[in-house]
Amino acid sequence: MSAQILDGNAVAAKIRSELAEEIVELKKEGCSPRLEVILVGDNPASKSYVSMKQKDCTEIGILGQTTHLPASTTEDVLLTLVDRSNKDDNVHGILVQLPLPQHISEAHVIARISPDKDVDGFHPINTGKMVAGSECFLPCTPAGMQELLKEYNINPKGKHVVVVGRSNIVGKPFAIMMMQKKEWANATVTVCHTGSGDLKPFTRQADILVAAAGRPAMITADMIKPGAVVIDVGVNRIDDPQAKRGYRLVGDVDFAAAKEVASAITPVPGGVGPMTRAILLKNTVQSAKKFHTLL
Ligand code: NDP
User: Fold this and answer.
1) How many separate domains does the chain show?
2) How far is the CA of 211 from the centre of ligand 1 (A)?
3) DSSP string, 54-110
């Protein structure tokens, strides 16, 4: 039997529509959520992500302001811009699109964003709070993955979650979130990476398998325990002369074969990606409410 498809587009649309209704009410209270997005350079993937975020904001009534700077922008200029948004009481969320050009330190820039406006959840203070299990802005992709599981009533409690990938924005925070003694978590967690050797003995144990390595179709059907839930975070561009844009997007999982083994699976595109964007909106609204003491 083919796996259930975990439809991130549908769940994200529901979140957006709930937020849109909430924003109408917030505006009546004088609270108008605003997100400041800063893009440096012309990375095509980054440009496309930023324009999608802008579109999402407009759709639900968040004022989304994008500043596009040339790739030659200095770190000082970028930090000055971040400082300005930090001080602006009308700005509730600040997002600097990553990756940044080589000459700019991402760590410096992330650390400069006010933790109270860090809707991406990357600031070291928010990371520390997440590890401690305190309330904070959670990074959008792992929070979106957790929300998707919740929506489909797939409770990680007591399950073995195996995460392939340990980046600071996906693998590591998701592993930490899953091990918390909290609702929709409380799992036993294994994290694999390039130092893990043969992955199959680990991935075959997973009740919930997360692929976040950025390697097209690296998770094959034989690496999946029958009945497992598979979350495919990977977004990889594959050349495809038949496609309008000359490429298509694939995940880290061999989807066609995996869906015959798994009990549930996220598609790429249309799985984790839209959830990431929805959580960014949610975090921005949350921040605006906090600023206006409406929480
Ligand atoms: P990174 O490149 O930062 O991290 C990749 C991780 O995967 C690293 O920890 C790396 O190990 C591990 N890895 C890579 N190859 C292998 C391998 N062959 N075997 C085992 N482990 C491996 O990537 P990100 O976490 O930023 O992104 C991962 C994927 O998710 C990408 O395709 C990205 O585009 C996508 N993504 C999707 C998002 C969405 O919203 N859908 C959001 C963010 C990312 P090591 O640490 O040892 O190098």
Assistant:
1) 2
2) 8
3) HHHHHHHT-EEEEEEE-TT--HHHHHHHHHHHHH-TT--EEEEPSSPPTTS-HHHHH
